[in-house]
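FIELD: query
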Amino acid sequence: MLLENPDRPIIHIGDRFSWAYKRDQVLIKWNRHPHSTVEQLLKKLEVEESVFIDFASFVLAQGLELVVVDLLSKKGFIVKQVTADSTSYSVEKAA
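FIELD: result
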């Protein structure tokens, strides 16, 4: 479930097919290395205070979004699933 009219940028983690060139989203390609994906996210979070992350279904099917969420939490970010059935997560810098 993707958010309608988000109040902050959306970062899609997947590939160009799952992203489908959505203009309102920034693509971070999933390269099978969660640490690399998190490093790319950290670069984006240097500029933005908070973002939404949307995961492609093939990432979700393997449960790999939980690895990314865990790594971001360990880096000190506040990560929350938007709703229980959502593929989107809210990521904010801790105060």
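FIELD: remark
The CA atoms of residues 35 and 62 lie 16 Å apart.
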